Amino acid sequence: MMVKDKVAIVTGAARGIGAAAALALARDGYHIEASDIDGDGLARTQAAIVDAGGSVVTGLLDVRSSEAVAAYAAGVEGRHEGIDLLVSNAGFASIGYLEDIDDAHWETVTDLNLTSHMRLARAFVPRMKARTSGRIICLGSIAGHTYGWAGRLAYASSKAGVTGLVRTLAMELGPHGITVNGVAPAGLHAAVEQVPLGRVGTNEDIGDFIAMLASDGARFMTGQMLSVDGGMSVSL
Predict the structure, then answer these.
(1) Residue 1 pLDDT more than 60?
(2) Taking the domains of the chain in order of start, what are their residue ranges?
(3) Is residue 43 over pLDDT 90?
(4) Contacts of residue 207, Cβ cutoff 8 Å, sequence gap at least 6
(5) Residue 229: what are its φ and ψ, rounded to 5°?
(6) DSSP letter at 96?
């Protein structure tokens, strides 16, 4: 579905799901404000969007810093009358059993995988409220949402927190015309026999779903964490 004159923020857009989502949204007609800490990766995302005929501006952003997020939001909002979509994607996977995790590890994972979503929403929601419209999509995981994952304690816990954040923000922001949903990917690095669809997933599978969730057809959906996993969550 093509849109016109709409603006989408995509964080963690230098590679992987973020880059795929930025490209899918650009193809649907969104102007993309793409950010990451990886400038070289952002340049590749920018080139792919331009080659596809899309519109994009890139910017370096460390979502672990409240000050950096606030400054970035001010810069983006200064270029546009409004922000239509925030795709809060930045995050990383971590490994660690209970006995291996110190406070620093736990705090690092939680800050990037959970707190960053709050920082970004806090920065961009005021303008959305003023326009009584907006979409927020946060990246979670089926780890912590659908099942536990031994050896990924901090990761699964932080991603479970994203589900709670999505549901709570949906309640808070719904009266202002803002929807908040989450995407819980899996199956991208699984063994084929674990995936009922019989193939490993791709970043494009998730990116295209994010674009679909951003479409007008999802206007009445909010507060949902949606598993996009080739059926893994129903087979495990």
Answers:
(1) no
(2) 7-235
(3) yes
(4) 17, 19, 20, 21, 22, 23, 24
(5) -150, 15
(6) B
Distance CA 179, CA 219 (A): 8
At the fourth CATH level, the homologous superfamily of domain 7-235 is NAD(P)-binding Rossmann-like Domain (3.40.50.720)
User: Stretch 181-202: mean pLDDT, rounded?
Assistant: 92
Q: Is 87 helix (H, G, I), strand (E, B) or coil?
A: strand
Structure tokens at 188: 């991208």
The length of the chain, given as a count of residues: 236
Average pLDDT over residues 173-201: 93
How many Å apart are CA 45 and CA 13, to the nearest integer? 7
Please state, in angstroms and as integers, the Cα–Cα distance from residue 69 to each residue in 117, 119, 150, following that order.
11, 7, 32
For 12-161, strand residue ranges (E) read 31-36, 55-60, 85-88, 134-139
The region, left, alpha or beta by phi > 0 then psi within -120 to 50, assigned to residue 121 is alpha
Per the CB < 8 A criterion, the answer to whether 170 and 222 are in contact is yes
Of the candidates 194, 198, 202, 179, the one whose C-alpha atom is nearest the C-alpha of residue 132 is: 179
Q: Which residues are catalytic?
A: 155
Report the pLDDT value the prediction gives residue 146, as an integer from 0 to 100: 85
The pLDDT tens digits for 107-144 are: 999 999 999 999 999 999 999 999 999 999 999 999 88
Q: What is the reported pTM? A: 0.96
Tens digit of each residue's pLDDT (9 = 90 or more) over 198-232:
999 999 999 999 999 999 999 999 999 999 999 99
Cα separation, 56 vs 8, whole angstroms: 10
